[in-house]
Amino acid sequence: MGVIVDTNVFIEAERRRGAVDLNQWKDRGSVFLSVITVSELLVGVHRANTPERKSRRAEFVEAILTAIPILKVDEEVAREHANLFAGLASRGQMIGAHDLWIAATAITHNHALLTANTAEFLHVEGLEVLQFA
């Protein structure tokens, strides 16, 4: 078991201009990123509104991508995604498209999800959600 870190954890750290301290979750195993989080972080780089912010974000994101292993979307994750999608849709509890892929990745790999957005992810059955403050 390990922990997948949601995009919003890094966004909060970048806003505070600080590092993300993941030490309090080290007893849960290794830390990972979903490839979806990689895309979301890189979108933030591309959408920066000044060259200085773009440079700062790019440096921040590249440091994360160098330090944390990335879990890709494969057929097993796609099958879990479809299962989650169908269940959430039938209950009228859909979550964001990207969040659903991140949740499917976490469940497939038997990892908890560390997020600052627990309200949305708590709808996903079988997903262990950890609150980032």
Provide the domain count: 1
Terminal CA distance:
22 Å
Largest sheet: 5 strands, parallel
Structural class comes to: alpha/beta
Query: Architecture in CATH?
Result: 3-Layer(aba) Sandwich
Q: What's the shape?
A: globular
Into which percentage range does the β-strand content fall?
5-15%
Helix content: 40-55%
- CATH-assigned fold name: Rossmann fold
In total, the number of strands is 5
Q: How many individual helices?
A: 6
Oligomeric status of the shown chains?
Answer: single chain
Q: What is the topology, as strand order, of the major beta sheet?
A: 3-2-1-4-5
Q: What sequence of helices (H) and strands (E) makes up the elements?
A: EHEHHEHHEHE
How is the secondary structure organized here?
Blueprint: E1 3-5, H1 7-15, E2 31-34, H2 35-46, H3 51-67, E3 70-71, H4 75-91, H5 97-108, E4 112-115, H6 118-121, E5 129-131
Parallel strand pairs: 1-2, 1-4, 2-3, 4-5
Helix pairs in contact: 2-3, 4-5
